Amino acid sequence: MLTLAITKTIATAAVEVHFPEAILRASRNAAIMADAAHVILTSDARANTGNFYIDEDVLRKSGVTNFDHYAMTPGVPRSKPTDAPRGPRPAGYPARST
Description:
mainly alpha; two-stranded parallel ribbon; 5 helices
């Protein structure tokens, strides 16, 4: 098992519907996850099992230096997942730690 995580928001339908437009514009497209997954899945499985990866780190280590083509809106500073508004939790979810 391995984990591939993000450091910036990804422009998904959920982000488009549930977050302000500014968050969507500052997000990256999903191709960054696909490209990072491809790098991981085409490398030695024994070296990757049990690891935790960050999409941008994986791509940097594979030689990617320009991430502009992953931007939903070029020139807009990237949005971090922590930039998203934090509304009330749905019923049944545990309280957030602060």
